[in-house]
Structures are given as C-alpha cells and as structure tokens.
Amino acid sequence: MANAIRCMVIDDEPLAVKLLADYIRKTPGLELVYSTTKVLEALPVLQEGQVDVLFLDIQMPELTGLQLIKVIGKECKVVLTTAYQEYALQSYEYDVVDYLLKPVTFDRFALAVQKVRARLQESAPVTAMPYIFVKTEYRIQKIVLASVLYIEALRDYIAFHTTEGKILSLESMRRMEEVLPGQQFIRIHKSYIINRDNVDFLERGKVVIKGQYLPVGDTYKEAVQQWIKPV
C-alpha cells in the first residue's frame, strides 16, 4: 500500500489487539505491519524503522508502555491505550500523539489517526503539490490546489468549490483525505474538507471561507482546533 501509514499494535490483552487491528484494517491510508501481545517480540521490528505509529498499551508484564518509549526513543509516533485515566498526564511527558481510554471506540480511534497524520506532516519534508487530477463524469480534470476553497460530499459526487467555480467529481472523500497534503487540507465534518490557506476565521463551531459557514463535526473538533490555532 503506497504511502500508507505503517501501524503496530502492542497490548497484552488479545481482544484489545484484535480490536485495534480491525480498526486499522478498515481505515483507508493505514497499514498494519505487526501486532502482538509480547512486547519484547516487537522490539526488533521497531528498531528496524519499519513503523510510523505504535498503538501501545501502558500496563504490560514484560515491559510497560512508558518503559518501551524510553527504549525506542523517537523511532515512531506513539498513541497510548489504557483502561486507567490516571496515566493521562504522565503520558504526555513522553510526547505521545494521543491517549486512548479503553474500550476504544472507532470514532475516538479516527480522531487519534487525524492527530497522527498531522504530526507526521509536521515532521515530513515539505514538497510542492500544486495540482491533482480527478475523475469527473466525462473527463479527467486538473484542479489547482491553491484554488480550492473546500470540498463538499454530495449524494453521488463530491464538489470542489474553487475560486473559479464548482467542479463535480466521482472521487470519494476518503480518497481525498489520502492524497491531499495534510499541512494544507483537513476534514472538518463528514461532508467537508477545507483548504487552510483559504480560511477566513473560526466562529462558534464553524469554519468560515469566503462567506460560507461550514460546520465542524464533533469527531473533528479537537483536531481542527490543533490544526488552526492562534500564534
């Protein structure tokens, strides 16, 4: 899977491993490279640099999650999982991307993935991506990314609202999440992806772009606030 985020799951509870592994498999743009209940077995894979994000339990018999973070250093991004809320404050001292309380719901997992994408984009070298080609009903259309105000999900299409007008495409919102540069575009609602470069302001739970008030979905609020924040 080209350019997929490579994921690992470590948890001493088999059911917890299975749940997160299933979430990873059903999420576009993610690839499960390794899952295990044995933390020491995972060390060689981590040290080879084959993992982008590690979903890691805290309380484990061989080595705790926090001890493992010290061992691997900054080999990959880490999302901690635990049934105990009291670890939350301590965990952020280790620069983790997110902290998931069990049982982990898919919505909460999806929010953590948004944060992972944003963090990986921050650390990735910036490369120019001035345009993309998308499928419309009768042609393959070039779209200059700088001209995109926002993307809207319709019943059978998605609509690119641009400075030049509206373009209907047969692509999917999930596909756009995968291919658009994360430092410039973010999904704020099940029906909207926005271009940060064209945001005018945020007001009362809505993103405003050229006079259009676009709602921010509950699932995406925290990620959006982190992505668009004052200096």
Describe the structure.
There is one protein chain. With 231 residues, the chain is an alpha/beta fold. It folds into two domains: 5-123, Response regulator (Rossmann fold, 3-Layer(aba) Sandwich), CATH 3.40.50; 131-227, OB fold (Dihydrolipoamide Acetyltransferase, E2P). The protein has seven helices and 15 strands. The strands form four sheets. Strands 2-1-3-4-5 form a five-stranded parallel beta sheet, sandwiched between helices. The protein has a five-stranded antiparallel beta sheet with strand order 10-9-8-12-11. 29% of the residues are buried.
Summary tags:
alpha/beta; 15 strands; Rossmann fold; Sig_transdc_resp-reg_receiver; elongated; OB fold (Dihydrolipoamide Acetyltransferase, E2P); 5-stranded parallel sheet; 231 residues; 28% helix; 2 domains; DNA-binding response regulator; 5-stranded antiparallel sheet
Structure at a glance:
With 231 residues, the protein is α/β, with parallel strands linked by helices. It is 28% helix and 32% strand. A five-stranded parallel sheet has the order 2-1-3-4-5, with helices on both faces. It has a five-stranded antiparallel sheet with strand order 10-9-8-12-11.
